[in-house]
Design goal:
- It is a single chain.
- The chain is mainly alpha-helical.
- It has a 5-stranded mixed β-sheet.
- The radius of gyration is 25 Å and the shape is globular.
């Protein structure tokens, strides 16, 4: 794939290389640096535990004490944890392994977008060679590259949703029966839901939407496709709920997390916030598309209008995954990340006829060599930056320092007493588990204890002389016969 990007023999070559530079600049550089957003850190910790036999696929675990009084981790269904656990088993425990997983999911999604793009245009259209355009529109979306950088579940879920839409287009364009393609849509939608619940189910409606809006509408086939995909999805869940371990796990997720969160833990104060999130997320691709379409109209070109039906179908599929989030008051911008690739492709389809003219014009332009040079230098600069920043924390530098020092003293699998301010620092808890298998507890009288900077420490413990910055480590004094609980 990289070789295809950097080949400089066509008019599209500098744009492909520039897109690769943007892609790696927004993903690789952050991913080679330790430290990330709390949610993603929790997820990779659970996956790492699973890779080492702590917890099981259907009953994963965060630590010995669990999370929020729950011994097992059911914030989300377990498929992504299982996938990454396998990744850890293959590649080991280095800090870079989770970054490599996130990058692999992003690369796989980008590759699927290229396949979808080629399928949409077919073999005869010059726009087919613009496969870098949907990748660029997708990766520059802030919610997308933020999710990749921070190891969010949506990054894995997008692989399944884009694959499902690809199967949809193949099925709708297949001559004769396409049941296998539509059955695959159901299976992939089930897999997406097993990553992060209901937001992964929207591809089920993709055949119907393609049948309504595409350039060769076929409503009957679209309805049949959605029926077949839905039937396959139902069969998958019937099988899962007939499996006791799976049923128990999924019910714990649905009752303890999903329904509870919807009912008691809203994140927005009005339902239309998702529209705001969506507009801001896609503002860059929208502006670029608008420039291309207006430029084409000014020159009297009809390409964007012809491409509009394909674009409308893809955007409708993407919106079917984003807008239903308004049904609840639990809305965050990254929840729609698995639906944004289809919107990005749809906008790129609209812009493509004019972009073809721009890029073909550059084939003989005097600045052609300069464009190639700038693109290659940009790619080289990104790769150099990744080498220079490798291993340097992007956030939580002090906590990572304290984790390394504490982990060098406390034995693996130990249970360490912690005062409440430390227990509230979930990043620190996650780092201890991820790198050293050390669990924190509010229970006193453990061999070791940790406190925040400035705390006098628990009675009967002596502070160890480590160069920690925010979290201090204490060890029970050997002469102490009785321990006083920490406040």
């Amino acid at each position: 794939m990289v070789r295809t990007f950097v080949s400089m023999g066509s008019a599209q070559a500098p744009f492909r290389v520039a897109t690769l530079a943007v892609f790696l600049g927004l993903t690789l550089i952050p991913l080679v640096r330790p430290g990330m957003f709390m949610d993603g850190l929790l997820y990779l910790t659970v996956a790492h535990n699973l890779a080492h036999g702590f917890g099981s696929f259907w009953q994963p675990r965060f630590s010995q004490e669990g999370l929020l009084q729950q011994p097992t981790f059911h914030e989300h269904p377990p498929l992504a944890f299982g996938m990454e656990a396998l990744w850890f088993r293959i590649f080991g425990d280095g800090f870079w392994v989770e970054g490599a997983y996130a990058l692999a999911m992003a690369v796989l999604t980008g590759w699927l977008l290229i396949l979808l793009w080629r399928m949409v245009w077919g073999p005869e259209k010059p726009e087919r060679d613009l496969w870098w355009l949907p990748v660029l529109f997708w990766i520059i979306t802030p919610a997308v590259h933020w999710s990749v950088q921070n190891h969010m579940q949506e990054n894995t879920m997008a692989v399944f949703t884009v694959a499902a839409v690809l199967c949809t287009v193949r099925g709708m364009r297949a001559v004769g029966h396409a049941w296998g393609h539509f059955a695959a849509v159901g299976l992939l939608s089930c897999a997406a839901a097993l990553v992060k619940g209901p937001p992964g189910l929207f591809p089920i409606g993709a055949p119907l939407l393609w049948g309504l809006f595409a350039s060769r509408p076929d409503l009957r086939k679209g309805m049949l496709g959605t029926v077949v995909a839905s039937a396959c999805l139902v069969l998958c869940f019937v099988f899962l709920f007939s499996w006791p371990e799976a049923r128990s796990s999924l019910m714990q997720y649905a009752e303890g997390r999903l329904l509870h969160r919807i009912d008691q833990d809203p994140t927005v104060d009005y339902r239309w916030r998702t529209v705001q999130h969506l507009f801001l997320a896609m503002l860059g691709p929208l502006l670029l598309t608008l420039i291309a379409v207006l430029s084409a109209r000014r020159s009297g070109q009809q390409g964007p209008m012809v491409a509009g039906k394909k674009a409308t179908a893809l955007i409708a599929i993407g919106l079917s995954g984003a807008l239903p989030l308004m049904l609840t008051m639990v809305q965050k911008s990254f929840y729609m990340v698995a639906a944004l690739p289809m919107i990005a492709v749809g906008l790129a389809v609209w812009a493509a006829p004019q972009v073809v003219r721009w890029t073909e014009h550059e084939r003989t332009a005097p600045g052609r060599k300069a464009m190639n040079t700038v693109a290659l230098l940009s790619l080289a600069a990104v790769l150099l930056a990744a080498v220079l920043f490798f291993g340097k924390p992007s956030r939580d530098a002090e906590l990572l320092n304290d984790t390394a020092l504490i982990g060098g003293v406390v034995p693996p699998h130990a249970l360490v007493s912690a005062e409440q301010p430390v227990l509230d620092q979930w990043n620190f808890q996650s780092y201890l588990m991820r790198y050293h298998f050390i669990s924190l507890t509010g229970k006193p009288d453990q061999p070791f204890a940790v406190t925040v900077e400035g705390s006098p420490g628990p009675a009967g413990y002596e502070r160890l002389p480590l160069a920690t910055e925010r979290i201090h480590l204490w060890q029970r004094a050997r002469t102490s016969a009785h321990q006083v609980p920490m406040k």
